[in-house]
Amino acid sequence: MAETRRWYFARRPQHEIEADTLQLRTETLPALAEGQMLLRTLYLSLDATLRLWLSEWDLYIDPVKLGDPMKGFVVAEVVDSRNPNFAVGSLVTGLGLWSDYVVTDGSGYSPMPRLPGLPIGEAFGVLAIAGPTAYIGLHEIGRIKPGDTVMITAAAGAVGMITGQLARIHGCRTIGVAGGAEKCRWLKQELGYDEVIDYKRGNLVEQIRAVAPDGIDVLFENVGGEILDAGLTCMKNFGTVVVCGLISSYNDGEQRTPGPTMFRNVIMRRLRIEGFVVLDYIDRYPDYQQKLAAWMLEGRLKYRLHVVDGLENALESLKLLYSSGNNGKLMVRVAGDA
Amino acid sequence: MAETRRWYFARRPQHEIEADTLQLRTETLPALAEGQMLLRTLYLSLDATLRLWLSEWDLYIDPVKLGDPMKGFVVAEVVDSRNPNFAVGSLVTGLGLWSDYVVTDGSGYSPMPRLPGLPIGEAFGVLAIAGPTAYIGLHEIGRIKPGDTVMITAAAGAVGMITGQLARIHGCRTIGVAGGAEKCRWLKQELGYDEVIDYKRGNLVEQIRAVAPDGIDVLFENVGGEILDAGLTCMKNFGTVVVCGLISSYNDGEQRTPGPTMFRNVIMRRLRIEGFVVLDYIDRYPDYQQKLAAWMLEGRLKYRLHVVDGLENALESLKLLYSSGNNGKLMVRVAGDA
Q1: In degrees, to the nearest 5, what angle opens at C-alpha B306 toward C-alphas B300 and B310?
Q2: Which of A27, A204, A255, A327 has the most other CB atoms within 10 Å of its CB?
Q3: What single-letter DSSP state applies at residue B119?
Q4: Which positions in chain A touch B262 (Cβ < 8 Å)?
């Protein structure tokens, strides 16, 4: 029988993910039953939310149970099939396992078209999670209007890099918050952010006020903590805070993080603060993906992928997200471009 | 010339309001110029937000400046007039001064009709601030629907006591959170709350889960701190948090209060958290007040006023709000019912 490597959730981390949090094991694959198929994983998407799936928080999704295989978003190729809905050679995407191969009846996976002109890695990296997240956050939750001043935190991250460009396409003025001069330069010169703020330079409120003296209409929040506080301080009356992520607290474990100290501005500035989870919108993915793919092909939507080779490096790579160590959308190439 | 007593903002409190925060002085009134009128204050409304007007927070309104007269919501009678828009003997309401008499051109004041069957104190106590606040919060911000489970904190306070009844009139199931057995008994037996929770008994999350095992659709928040955290913990997916007040932090002064530790639930439960200020809706007051007055006259809307006699007691009385020392809508009777 064929074998596969597969990551398992071995030990719950108290704070940072550690070397023994997940364990890579080799196991034998079962033969395909009627209705099943064999998937070969091409890429894993490494997303900030994965840390939460290893926690005991009360989540928007079932967490990974201790001892179970690690879950994540994947793109895979059908290499054998006894399921008429999935042809050999076709691609699928969905919530899969961190594994070279998977035997599945297909539940949780959707077909993914091959897009002429877009390599699989790029299509998956932008269209599977980050792109729809940016689109939904801006349009469905933030309800951005042309002329709005939109501030995006973790602007150089997977979601942030897309968000700023989509806001600009819609006619908004964009401010990106990122860490370090190189990321800020890239956001402004390559991605077309109108303004950038390097949070490592401190004095966030002053920096924001310098570029947005009239305040922020829509804050697209990916970080939380002091960065969110600075944003809340600088909101316009009747502004909107789209809460997409709060990565600064994801390693806190069971310890309760103090919330935003400027929470009172929800009243003082009459804010709407609204959170969302991209998975709730999965039925509308084809619509979002069509728009996003067109902009990618036209060169209007730029992106930077940070691809790590080898399933065996997945755990170590995941840690990069929580130390801002990634440089673009973080992915693991398990079996290369097919 | 006639004299008046008037409260002035004398010393900024660091935390609790103190005996020297405001100072009562006696001064001479000017003669009426053309276009002016002389108001005799009947009642002051004591509202939790007044503490903020004495702070250095960045507010939704101009604060009271050190050395300036104290502001507040009042109902007053026109006792002399050189302004054709305000007849002697008529009533006005608005943002006035803590003063026996005021000379004004009328800006900031609106006429208040005398409602047959409703004493001025009752009409002012319910219709000026608390009633419209409850109505706007539930309908404009909370968008309550019949069948919703609505939890109201500070449920025995001026706004809370009205909010629960309006939610019930709309067909919602209501849970009131208040401090102490007497208040809880009153909410349930007299005001018709479906469930009551005494926060002084502790274990808030357990208490909420016992009466709302499926969670809360709409949380009407007046308090903040641990009470808000418990509410956030028990929200349903896609629920709404109406932030009307955060009284637990109003005495914190310049010290920044940690925000809600369960803020992450804005994502996990996909919440909309929205704040509002009743003053933004002043144009629509007549509509709200007409509905509220009709329910008062029909006996469907009950209330409890906590009336303190004498302008000289205004400062001491205001402190009651921040120690839950009031028992119903807190007001100062300056010149009795006219």
Answers
A1: 140
A2: A204
A3: -
A4: 256, 259
- Look up residue A16 and give its DSSP letter: S
Chain A contact present for B258, CB below 8 A: yes
CA distance A255 to chain B (A): 10
Instruction: Supply the DSSP symbol for B253.
Output: T
Smallest CA-to-CA distance from A184 within A205, A199, A203 is with A199
CA proximity to A121, closest of A283, A289, A308: A308
The helix/strand/coil state of B94 is strand
Q: In terms of residues, how long is chain A?
A: 338
- Residue A140 and residue A264 in one domain: yes
Nearest-by-Cβ selection for A267 from B243, B258, B272: B243
Q: Among A175, A181, A176, which Cα is nearest to A157's?
A: A176
Q: Which residues in chain B touch residue A60, judged by CB atoms under 8 angstroms apart?
A: 237, 267-270
Question: Does one domain contain both A67 and A148?
Answer: no
Convert the pLDDT of each residue in A123-172 to its tens digit.
999 999 999 999 999 999 999 999 999 999 999 999 999 999 999 999 99
Mutation to test the A interface, candidates B221, B234, B267, B276, most A Cβ within 10 Å: B267
Strand segments (E) across chain A: 3-9, 22-28, 37-45, 71-81, 91-97, 101-104, 109-112, 149-153, 173-178, 195-198, 216-221, 235-243, 272-275, 305-309, 329-333
Render pLDDT for A286-326 as a digit per residue (tens, 0 to 9). 899 999 999 999 999 999 999 999 999 999 999 999 998 89
In a domain, B233, yes or no: yes
Q: Which residue of A has its CA nearest to B224?
A: A264
Contact B272 A270 (CB under 8 A): no
Give how far Cα A272 sits from Cα of A239, A242, A268, B16, B142, Å: 7, 8, 11, 30, 11
Main-chain phi, psi angles of A269, to 5 degrees: -100, 0
Q: Which of B59, B243, B262 lies nearest to residue A266, judging by beta carbons? A: B243
Q: Which of B2, B7, B87, B76 is nearest to B39 (CA)?
A: B76
Cα–Cα distance, A152 to A168 (Å, whole number): 12
Q: How many CB atoms lie within 10 A of CB A327?
A: 15
Based on the domain organization, do B246 and B320 belong to the same domain?
no
Question: Helix and strand tally (H, E) in chain B?
Answer: 10, 15
